Amino acid sequence: MSLTLGEIAAKLNAELRGSPDIVIEKIANLETASEGEISFLSDPKYKSSLEQTKASAVIIKEEHYEHCRTAALILKDPYVGFAYVAQMLDTTPKPADGIDPSAVISSSAKVGAGVSVGANAVIEEGVVLGDGAVIGANCFVGKNARIGARTKLWANVSVYHNVKIGSDCLIQSGTVIGSDGFGYANQQGKWVKIPQLGSVTIGDSVEIGANTCIDRGAIDDTVIESNVIIDNLCQIAHNVHIGFGTAMAGATVVAGSVTIGKFCIIGGRSVFNGHIKICDGTTIAGATSVMRTITKPGVYSSGVPEMENSKWRKVMACLPMIDEIYKTARKAIRLMGDKQ
Question: Full-prediction pTM beyond 0.85?
Answer without folding.
Answer: yes
